[in-house]
TrEMBL record:
Domain HTH marR-type: 1-91
InterPro entries to which the protein is assigned, alphabetical: HTH_MarR-typ, WH-like_DNA-bd_sf, WH_DNA-bd_sf
Species assigned in the record: Sphingomonas anseongensis
Superkingdom as given in the UniProt entry: Bacteria
Protein name from the UniProt record: MarR family transcriptional regulator
Length: 91
């Protein structure tokens, strides 16, 4: 079953896709702020995106209480495919 990548899911994926390679990942709170989505909504959608293999969720190296989020290679490819299907080149 495909994931609903509209609304908050799209906003979260777009923020993660736009991160500079040196930054790599964000903690959930920072991602919620950048995507302008309430934290509870962010957490709910991240669980769904993680279940479908688009993001990884791991302990934050700097703050063990926080969770870091990163696009998986599959998530990266999916985002690139979305832009390519719209005729937009990224990268």
């Amino acid at each position: 079953m495909p994931v609903d990548a509209t609304g908050p899911a799209w906003d979260l994926l777009l923020v993660l896709f736009g991160l500079p390679p040196a930054e790599g990942d964000l903690c959930v709170g920072d991602l919620a702020i950048r995507a302008e989505i309430p934290r509870t909504t962010t957490v709910r959608w991240l669980r769904e995106l993680h279940r479908h293999g688009f993001v990884t969720l791991s302990s934050n190296k700097r703050d063990k209480r926080a969770v870091s989020v990163k696009l998986t290679p599959a998530g990266q490819r999916a985002m690139e495919a979305c832009f390519a299907s719209a005729g937009l080149k990224v990268g």
